[in-house]
Amino acid sequence: MSVMQNNSEKAKWYLPGVLGGLGITMKHLLVNLLNRKKMMTLNYPEEKYEYSPRFKGNHVLTVKKDGSLRCTACMLCATNCPAECIKIVAAEHNDPHVEKFPISYEIDILRCVFCGYCEEACPVDAIRLGPEWQTPGVNGANFIYDINHLAYRPNLKGGIQTHVDDEERLKSGI
Amino acid sequence: MPKCTINGKEVEVKEGTSIIEAMQQSGDRIAHYCWHPGLSVAGVCRLCMVEIEGNPRVQIACNTMVTEGMKINNTSEKVRDAVKWGLDFHLINHPLDCPICDQAGECGLQDQYMEYGKYDPEMAEAKVKKHKVVDLGPTVVLDSERCILCSRCVRFTEEVSKTNELGIFNRGDRSEIGTHEGVELNNKYSLNTVDICPVGALTSKDFRFRQRVWYLKDAETVCNGCSNGCNVKVYFNKEGFFRVKPVYNEKVNGYWMCDEGRDIYKFVNKETRLLKAQVRNASGWTEMAGGAAAKNAHEVLKNTSGDSLALVLTAQYTVEEFDAIVSTFVNEFKTKKVFFWINNKETFDSFDGLLLRGDKNPNTKGLLKVLEKHGITATWADLTQGLGNGSIKTVVVAGPENQAVFPDLQERVKELSKAQNLIWLQAGKDDALMSLTGNVWLIPTKTFVEKDGTFINHAGLEQKFKKVTTIVSEALTLTEAALLLAGKNLTIPTATAQPFMPMNQREDQVTLEARKKNEFVFRRGSL
């Protein structure tokens, strides 16, 4: 790295710079005071910024129309996960059309790098990275997200539905 | 001995060899579903197409015999095209179940599609829906939608198990595999149908949904379920063992194994194992490391050596271990009171005509051989008498690994507990042992997947097997236990092979060549 130094006589005059900076601050103060609606800052946490829907935040497990999990426990997300933070236990479902479903689906969010590979790997659109980005927690346990949190947390309002349902899929002969 | 040319290579085969067998011999890859080396030829999948010089049409390789001077190839565009459209036909009604299907990862359809398929589907009609989760019997579940009607399972029940439970019913694209009216797939070899199913139509209830196959490593070993000594592959990962499959060995088991043998992984897993040694004296149980407990037991053995000391062996350990512990007792402790614990003498010689033997110990012949070598003639009656009149004070028992085949375990524990000091070497947990009173040492031992060794099967065939992995690190082999019980120390074997560094180099100098040897090679499964 090269360090440039300006040793000219003019550079010793610091007061114009200080006043210039103060001027900018005063300008912003006056503008903000006069029309407060256009202020650049937010009163966090009362006010929150909404990122674009493409933003990769906290995971969501989607649900079918009847509210049950869409996931078939195929483990592709867990296989594809570079951080190895997904843990799934599969079990047999009573409904022969469903056959297999996860009885436990856990994401260790402290290991997760939010790369979105799980989303990419999922063949049935069961896992998505949602727009939520606030992930406070008190201790380690708060950072292991289970099915309840991933699919049915209050913010999701009963779960996010997938486009294609099993019944529709079977009816259309796929 | 006809000679033929396969893909430009000259191959000499036996008279009456089919082209597909000749190709297996020459190492050429060929697509196939219905052909299985252990079953008859059906020729229903039409995938093993080859082009024979002088023949205008492609032909199936499984049902065409090699003749002198035949020129065969299966790499031409014509053959690949035939396989591709044959595959299209197979996949018309096949559901996209890969996320749910247990076979994903080792599925013939996936392999074949990646090699020959990759076409755009041209079917506009809806798929024919068939029965989904059909309960065929106590061990197998059928999904007839996934079935490609190769008839391997049907031929297996006809030709190998000879039980004829399965059949193909209905016609055309409504044909389905199923069991005959009022019969269920319930024979002692039923899970072989799962092994030979090239797609995920037949799945094992035991393994179903427990692991995806790409998470499993495999290793070859010898089954310790009975004295037949079938060659098997065990599948495991860090969570434990999950399934067992047969490995081809013409002399022992062919391509098959029994359902009973598939349960041998269960007593190996951590949840059923004795993880720490338990030592009991007047003040109660204490937990110890395995080696420490054996050292501790040495104090007692030292004082009771000679005629008041007895050794009881089950035929579940390897020849090397028997040799080590018996010679320790004969030479160090000067006792010839070594007894063979026979679990079910009446059924020892029974045989079901295919694989299953009545003797549920893998190494009865090996134990008898070692006992003979040391000139041991003691019978169980001597032990009962010795325990009854108090002349036997200390008993060392090498208990069964596979407790399920020892129905008399409780009785024998009760009988042996008459001894003042009972040193019990055992792999699995057992309530009868934990409820013992008096001086007891429970020392964990390694199971057959955790050690190298030899089993001698019913026919006297010696089969060596290698260690697969370690499950209980504190467990001892009988060889190690014998050393520690005799008051000696374990030595860690040092490698005597050539040192890795060339002699004329500085110790910290690593050449590029040596670095390459160390390079981590990343391999993802065989898909």
Question: What this model shows, in words?
Answer:
- Chain A: Pfam families: Fer4_7 (PF12838).
- The complex is a heterodimer of chains A (174) and B (527).
- By secondary structure, chain A is α+β, with helices and mostly antiparallel strands.
- Chain A has a domain of 115 residues: 2-Layer Sandwich (Alpha-Beta Plaits).
- Helices cover 24% and strands 14% of the residues of chain A.
- In chain A, strand 2 and strand 3 form a beta hairpin.
- Chain B is α+β, with helices and mostly antiparallel strands and 527 residues long.
- Chain B has three domains: 90 residues, Ubiquitin-like (UB roll) (Roll), CATH 3.10.20; 139 residues, Alpha-Beta Plaits (2-Layer Sandwich); 211 residues, Rossmann fold, CATH 3.40.50.740.
- Helix content of chain B is 23%, strand content 19%.
- In chain B, the strands form six sheets. In chain B, strands 15-14-20-19-18-16-17 form a seven-stranded mixed beta sheet, with helices on one face.
- In chain B, helix 2 packs across helix 3 and helix 6 packs across helix 12.
- The interface between A and B is medium-sized, with 19 and 17 residues.
Itemize the secondary structure elements and their pairings:
The complex is a heterodimer of chains A (174) and B (527).
Chain A (H helix, E strand, L loop, with lengths): L14 H20 L24 E3 L14 H5 L5 E7 L7 E9 L8 H5 L5 E3 L14 E2 L1 H6 L13 H6 L3
Antiparallel strand pairs in A: 1-4, 2-3, 3-5
Chain B lengths: L2 E4 L2 E4 L6 H8 L22 E4 L5 E3 L9 E4 L3 H15 L16 H9 L17 E2 L4 E3 L9 H8 L6 E4 L6 E4 L12 H5 L5 E3 L12 E6 L8 E7 L2 E7 L30 E5 L2 E5 L1 H15 L4 E5 L5 H14 L5 E3 L23 H10 L6 H9 L5 E5 L10 H8 L4 E6 L4 H4 L4 E6 L8 E4 L5 E4 L12 H8 L26 H7 L9
Parallel strand pairs in B: 1-5, 16-17, 16-18, 18-19, 19-20
Antiparallel strand pairs in B: 1-2, 3-4, 3-5, 6-7, 7-10, 8-9, 11-12, 12-13, 14-15, 14-20, 21-22
Helix pairs in contact in B: 2-3, 6-12, 7-8, 7-12
GO cellular component, one term (chain B): membrane
Pfam families (chain B): Fer2_4, Fer4_Nqo3, Molybdop_Fe4S4, NADH-G_4Fe-4S_3
Keywords (chain B): 2Fe-2S, 4Fe-4S, Iron, Iron-sulfur, Membrane, Metal-binding, NAD, Translocase
